[in-house]
Each structure stands twice: as C-alpha cells, then as structure tokens.
Amino acid sequence: MGPLEVVEDDRRLMLGGPKQRAVLAVLLLHRGEVVSTDRLIDEVWGERPPATAAKTVQVYVSNLRKALGNGLLVTQGRGYLLRTSPGQLDLDRFDALVAEARQALRDGKAEAGSDRFRQALALWRGRALADFAFERFAQNATAQLEEQRLAALEDRIDAELALGKHAALVAELESLVREHPRRERLQAQLMLALYRSGRQADALERYQTARRALIDQLGIEPGPALGELERSILTQDPSLQPPPRPTALRRAASRRRASVLLLIGAALLLIAAVSAALLSGGDDTRALSLQANALGLVDPATGHLRASVPIGGTPARVHASGGQVWVTNDDARTVALVDIRAPAIARVVRIRAFPSDFAVGEGVLWVIDRLRGRLVKISPDYGTVLGTSKTGSTATLSTIDDRFDVDPWSIAAGAGGIWITDGSSMLRRAEPTNGTMVRRYDMGVPLNGVAVGEDAVWAISGSSATVLRIDARTGKVTARIAIVASKRTQAPYPIALAVGLGSVWVLNATAASVTRIDPGQAGVTTTIPLGIERVPRRIAAGAGAVWVADADGTLARIDPTTNALTTTPIAPSLYDVAVDARGVWVTSGSATAGGTLAASTTVGAQARALPSSQCSPIYSAPGARPGYLIVSDLPVGGRSILHHSAAQLERAILFALKARGFRAGRFTIGYQACDDYNVA
User: Fold this and answer.
1) Which alpha helices (H) appear in 33-89, and where do they start and end?
2) Which of 144, 312, 356, 415 has a beta carbon 3.0–4.6 Å from 130's, enabling a disulfide?
3) What is the pLDDT of residue 4?
4) Alpha carbon distance 504, 516 (integer Å)
5) How far from 422 is each of 229, 331, 406, 410, 497, CA to CA, in Å?
6) How far apart are CA 439 and CA 427, in angstroms?
7) pLDDT 10s digits, 49-80
8) DSSP for 539-571?
C-alpha cells in the first residue's frame, strides 16, 4: 500500500538495503506461513543468486529480528515465519474497513459506507510495493492489491452516486478513466455522473470515446452493461435519476446548516483571538502540511500548500514548463506526468533507469541515467520511450542510486542543444531532435551542473568553486566566475544553479548559501546565507522569487529586489523545486530520505560493518573492497540545529573522502554514517 515502511510508536524503523527489505516484503506477503530459505533466495535474487546467498539471508533475517523485535520473526525448520497480529498491517485494516463499508451498503447506509471506504483508501500511500516495482516476487501481489484498491474505489463512487454527489465526482472520474481507460465500470460511473449533472451530450460522447479506445487497442466492443447504459441515456430512462433524499436526511441537513451557522460564529471568535495573538508578536507554529513521498503545489504569495499528489516510492526531480508538470520516482524508476487540473498522476512512463536528472526540449522529455551513462528520449504525448543513446565518461558512472551524495550528472535543454555534465571536465552537447552526441567541450575543471538562459550556457564546478559562462555556438568559455567565501562561512561548493529574474543563482552546499551573479558583468553581486542549520538541495527561479528546497523540509524564498530571505516549513524533507504559472512545485521525502544506499559495499577482512538498522550502508569507491572503515556517530535524527549541523558534517566527510578516492596512503577505506539519535 505504498513503499514498505515499519512504524513503531510513530517512529519509522530502519530496514536496511533493498535486498534486506525485499526479504521482509516476501515474508510479509506470506505472513503466517513458513517461507524456506531456498524460496527466499529464489524470490530475492532470481535465477542467478550469489554463492553466499544462504548466509546473506541469515544475516538479513538477523538484522530484521533486531529491527522488528517482539519475537515477530522466528525460525522454523529450514525456513522463517513472520507472525503478525490482526490489524497490525495496513492491509488488514484496509480489508476490515472495506468489509464494513460493503455491509453498510447492503444495509442501505450509503453515507456510512462512503465514510468507511474513504477511511480504507486513505491508508494507501502510493502504488502497492512501490519499492519493488520491477521485482519478480512482487508482480502478482502488486496487481492483486491494485485490483483490491480500485474495486474499493469504485464501490465508494457508487455509494456517493447514491448520495447524489454526481457533480462533485465528475472531475475525479475524468482523471480515473484517463488512468484506467479499460475499466468499464469507471466509464459507466462517469457517464452516469455526467448525465445526472445535466450533461447528456458529454455522457454520450464519453461512451463513444471509451468504445473507440477498446476497439483500437483490443479489437472488442464495450460490454453489455456499458451499452445498456448508453441506450438508457438516449431514452432518458427515469431510473437513471438520482434517488430522492429521505426526509430524515433533509432534517439532518437542516440541523447541519444550523450547526454550520454556530460554527461560523465560533470560527469568527477564534480568528479574532488568533489575530490578536499574532499582533502581539506570537510565533508562526503552523504544522508541516505536505506528507512524505508526494508532489506539492505551494502558493508563492503565502507559502501555503494548495494541492498535493501522492507519488509512492521516492519522488525526486520535478520539471514544470509548457503547462505540464513531470516528476521522477527513484524507487519505481519512472517519470510521471501530473494532471495539473486535478491534480493527480495522469500518465506513468517506466524508464527502467535511475532518473538522475531530466529536461524538456524540442517537445521531447530527456532523462539522464547515470548508472548506465545513457540519455533516454521520451514522448510526452504518448508516454513512451523513443530511444536511448550513450553519453558520459565511464570513469564518472556511479554505483550509488540515491540522493544522499551530490550528483554531478545534470541536463539542460535550450540554446540549440541538450547540454549534459557528468562529473568530468567535459560539457557534452546532444542534438535536440534525436539525442545523438554531437560535440563535447573540455572546460578544464570537473562539472556538476548546467543551465541555459540569459543568452548563454552556464555550468558549475563544485571542486573549484567556479561558475562558467559558455558561448552556446562555439562552446568556448567567455567568463570564469570564482565564488569566494566570506570570512565567516565555509568554502562554497556549488551543487545546483538556476537562471532567471535577470540573474544567475548558484546554490552552495557546504556553505549553505546562494550566490547571485550578474550575467552581463559576469561577476558576483551578493551572497545570501541560508542558515548554518540548512542542508540545501535544489534551486529554482520564477513566480517573482528564487526558491530553495532544503533537506530539513523548509522552502526558502529569496526576494530578487531586496535579497531578503524567508523560510517556510513544508514537509519532513524536500528533494527538488520547480516553478510555473500555477505556483511552486516541490517533491518531498521522509525525514531521513536520501540517507541510505541501494546496495552496500563488501568490506575487507580487517573491517566489519555496523548494524544497518542504525547505520547507513558503506560508501566507498565504485567496485572497491575497503580494508578499513571510518564510522561517524552523529545525531542525524530529529529536527534540531544539532541535527542539521551533523548532516552537513556527513556531507563534508564524503566530499573529502571522494576527493581522495577513498584512500589513505596505501589503504583503501570506506565510510559508514551512524545515528545515535534516540527518538524516545
């Protein structure tokens, strides 16, 4: 019912890397029954398990026992049994609520049934088993769970149609039939809602659209139920009218209206009291509004959340332009188009690659896959992968597929090309029509970000703390702008940039600041500190301001006229930010998002990893087998200033180790970040 999570007393338990999480997922899918070691190996590794698979399963189970506690996971014979109590799983609560809802409908209690269905559906946090979208063991279970969710959703809509809520359901149903065009029950519900809303012509047109889609895609006519509904609409069958509201319901509605008047009076008194408190200097203590693993739309004037879209898995990059909003999903390896009218997910493209960064150019969506060094071309209109091309240096390919480390792979579209950085000194230019690499320009310093605007291509070099202005026609550097730290701040390390509002804005990680550059004079005009407690991730310019997404969940706003900074808590953690005419779009993760690796590195005989339930997997050079391990023990949990400083310190450690190739003289070393924060 979304990404796999285990929560104890409002505390999210650390479950380790993907393989260990997969073991737990298999045991949960077969809870209450013994799962043999051989089956676990087959489900998790498939046909080519490593030679040490059996031993690795034992280690994973041992780690899971420590994380879960309470004797939930036990050994029986040559396998393992996961014991769960009724109601302990979200799925159990979902099934119970759906059963109650359907019984209420059978008893003629549509309103109670609708409420129960809504409670049940609210338990879903995204696509079932989103972490394991492409794992074989999850395929059948995911399909079955998704069918259960859709069936409950359709039942809820039937209940609300029976309550006369047809007009309010039209927009939701339109979004659902775009997502599930072959579900004839949804098509019928939309037709009925349109008809009852006085839109008979639209209802009939919806039937023809559904019929054409079925014929074109499957070569079949709609089923008898849909055809009968069309005929009933044509003849304006009286049975299609919504059922009359019972007298008791009308009396209840009158009582509710009276209650509303009383509540309005109470609300006015409350507003007056709150206003007085604010005028007297009270602090803004608004709670976070955007849930983890979601896309949010923020009002640029007030900083309030306008809308949110659950993504499932880990949403990361977001791009907004041309009336479209696209968001990537690291866990599911997808790029999704958002219906900004709903808002809701309208289309999902499975790219089967880690979406390091993406851009839109020449009517095409371009995605960088840094794990394979590929440029993926996607049709925005049809949501299909049109092709791939090789790009980048094999020396810069990463084995890390999360957002914890600074990612040097970036892409920008414009100025007649698709521009790519990959951590090397080469700025690569691809043909904007087919993605073929046509030129590469040696900039002399490693590059880790690129943007287009103000009649130039702009690139950043974190290691040299410089910004390069590049002539798009010749590829020559026309200016090298040094970002100099003030006496009171750390040395800057540029990680992202944005062009807009007449300036180039550079986000610095270690110094937690934004450098403003005059593009005409090619010089720094000011440096804006974000606060030592911040861990900035991404930056965007538009909607009258510059916006910074921070790992601690705050959204920073910089006024381009005064350079004044304001911050607003939005979510547990933020990954990215983009701007369009509707407002500011942000992607959110959990409070610890970005702090784990997809796969840990094996250490040598002299070093032993600490428990993954309390520590991250091991960072090291790609393919290395470190003989010694550096371990940090820092309070990275919580939301205190100490926590933010610790997070910055971890990044600084990684910067230093990466710069030295994870070596100390003749020794190969690894790094593991541990957490001594006690939630209790």
Assistant:
1) 37-45, 53-68
2) 312
3) 77
4) 6
5) 56, 22, 12, 7, 15
6) 8
7) 888 888 888 888 888 888 887 778 888 888 88
8) EEEETTEEEEEETTSEEEEE-TTT--EEEEE-S
Other Cβ atoms closer than 10 A to 400 = 18
**Better-scored residue on pLDDT, 595 or 402:** 402
Query: How many Å apart are CA 48 and CA 294, to the nearest integer?
Result: 35
- CA–CA gap between residue 3 and residue 6 (Å, rounded): 10
The residue with greater pLDDT, 565 or 356, is 565
Q: How far is CA 306 from the centre of its chain?
A: 17
**What pLDDT, on a 0 to 100 scale, did the predictor assign at position 134?**
67
Q: What is the 3-state secondary structure (H, E, C) of 231-286?
A: HHHHCCCHHHCCCCCCHHHHHHHHHHHHHHHHHHHHHHHHHHHHHHHHHCCCCCCC
pLDDT at 677: 47
- Cis amide bond preceding 492, omega within 30: no
Q: Report yes or no: 475 and 439 within 8 Å, Cβ to Cβ.
A: yes
Average pLDDT over residues 218-230: 88
Contact 328, 585 (CB under 8 A): no
Q: In this structure, what token pair is assigned to residue 36?
A: 């043999």
Ordered structural domains, the chain, with CATH: 7-82 (1.10.10.10), 294-589 (2.130.10.10), 600-680 (no CATH)
Q: Which residue has the tokens 């149903």?
A: 173
More confident residue, 428 or 679: 428
C-beta separation of 620 from 671 below 8 A: yes
pLDDT at 256: 45
Residues 6 or more apart whose CB falls under 8 angstroms from that of 141 comprise 29, 128, 129
CA 194 to the chain's CA centroid = 33
Q: What angle do CA 505, 508, 513 make, to 5 degrees?
A: 80
Give, in order, the Cα–Cα distances in Å from 668 to each of 245, 296, 601, 602. 75, 43, 12, 12
Q: What is the DSSP letter of 131?
A: G
* pLDDT number for residue 405: 59
* 101, containing H or E segment: helix 90-106
Averaged pLDDT score across all residues of the chain: 80
The predicted model gives 637-665 an average pLDDT of 63
Instruction: Specify the residue for token string 């639209």.
Output: 202
Residue type at 41 in one-letter notation: I
Q: In what order do the strands lie in the sheet with 536-542?
A: 536-542, 545-550, 554-558, 565-569
The two tokens of residue 60 are 């994973």
Q: Give first-to-last CA distance, the chain, whole Å.
A: 27
Place of tokens 């659950």: 310
Helix axes 166-179, 136-162, angle to 10 degrees: 160
